[in-house]
């Protein structure tokens, strides 16, 4: 197990280097002037351009530029964005909000999705099953920017149960509605995945054995069926959490949440290369670590997967 | 192999009146002095085996019907099966796939999925109590401590995500309220009993870490954990290779004698049956078509289907000859042919076979067959 983790961590190094290099190259080596549009309507003064090019080593060959940038990153310096604010500081705030939102969405989608899936799978073809199938189909077919606005209008404006916008003060209560919107799509997939697994495992030989052992229904479903049915769902949840941590441009946009997705989006719009590369570097790391945790968890849940 | 004399039905004149309930007798003592057996009153003789005595049956299935409601229509899986099983007796149920042998076993166990399965009529008595009318919770508590089952494919029948010891120990924890460490001790004891080497070290291993034979031993350990009175083994050796098959059968026989269990052995392998079983019921299309003592059936089958099955066993003394097989396929259970269900495949079929379904009837002492021409077949 320990060996496996070390091996996986070592594997991350080339992945991080490769992906960040690609992003760096795309941001800084693309045709076009990196300082264009930085000074409003006018062209930037030559002194500013010179300073900018020197600061980010833009006159060096690309690999050298990248090498110098990564050197700084390793020392914890992600550079400053175009407003002179350290990117690391920005990202800390933004990741705080996104992490909170992602966790809430994850809890919401897993609890509701798994429960709905169990109830549906236990009585395949029954009322709850049909209800779950139809409602999840409904959720899956509606794009999130539609459901987001509809729920915001309905629960935020009409009923007034939730704040319409989140803004700078991202409290639990304010993030509740956005988290539900964000988690709704995955919830639908989880419910369907769980339903299929439960229904399939209920017909499996080991569940028949559990019945033959004279176990109570509760134990047959709660222990013998559930554990096996959860394995694929946990995998899905893990990868989905990684994606959620990348931020969501649409949901953040609708509810005015100052998260990672919006940060990357505006930085790209502003051609703020340093901010984009910094944010993406962190995102790659987060995604890799979440993936590692999911894989380890998978081995714990399913003893047939060996990490030796 | 297990110390029983060979005999044929012709030599046997022990007979009971209610043989329709499959309580025909078989004992070596009877064969030595057949004249002393009082006809119709086997209880009078003390050394009659338990399954010959009246009113002492461990398990009794009466007129059982099971049907499945499928998209293709009503599949009649079991059509009036009668069985009895006594303590210490081994009853083999023989038949092709789809003959209803596994469904019978699952109906007895109470683990049929209902729906789609339905039991429109029939009774299953365990020690005089009807399992089918019993509250489900009461019946559930019999599964494990009283009636237990070993399945065909041990890899899929064991839960892949729990250690084998945990799965055996679960029997003690749930039925006997035993604590964790005591129940694990029991699991180790049972694993040792079924000859798993290094039981103590392997109690925490998972099913996929065992070989096929070892996994089947674990299934058996789990099934006998609470000393059940009835053990149903549903093709316990089908998924195993031949040498392991023999070991598993020997183990089952040994455990049966040790605990004086009634054993129902479901199989399509006549070779497995010969050594182990006392009596055989041959099933076809959800009905019992022949019922006899194991030696009788091997000496002279009284149903063309049984005959076909016996002829399809490869034999060392008939090397080089073509192996005969029963032509055709078992009928679809949604469209069982009229008359005798076997008639389309039967070499002896006459017009009467296509019109009239032959009842299971006594043709010889302690022998029953559901064939219009059973006597002709026996006289051949």
UniProtKB/TrEMBL annotation, chain A:
Domain of life: Bacteria
Membrane spanning stretches: 12-30, 101-122, 131-155, 175-194, 220-239, 245-266, 273-294
GO biological process, one term: transmembrane transport
Keywords, alphabetical: Cell membrane, Membrane, Transmembrane, Transmembrane helix, Transport
Secreted is among the record's keywords: no
Family recorded in the similarity comment: Belongs to the binding-protein-dependent transport system permease family.
Protein name: Oligopeptide transport system permease protein
Lineage of source species: Bacteria, Bacillati, Actinomycetota, Actinomycetes, Micrococcales
TrEMBL record, chain B:
ABC transporter domain segment(s): 59-310
Subcellular location: Cell membrane
Alphabetized GO MF terms: ATP binding; ATP hydrolysis activity
Cellular component GO terms held in the UniProt record: plasma membrane
One BP annotation, GO: peptide transport
Predominant subcellular localization, coarse grouping: membrane
UniProt superkingdom: Bacteria
Ranges where the record places region Disordered: 1-52
Keywords of this entry: ATP-binding, Cell membrane, Membrane, Nucleotide-binding, Transport
Topological type in the membrane: Peripheral membrane protein
UniProt keyword annotation of Lyase present: no
Positions with biased composition (Basic and acidic residues): 1-34
InterPro entries on file: AAA+_ATPase, ABC_Ni/Peptide_Import, ABC_transporter-like_ATP-bd, ABC_transporter-like_CS, Oligopep_ABC_C, P-loop_NTPase
One Pfam match: ABC_tran
Entry-linked NCBIfam families: oligo_HPY
Family: Belongs to the ABC transporter superfamily.
Protein known as: Oligopeptide transport system ATP-binding protein
Organism: Marihabitans asiaticum
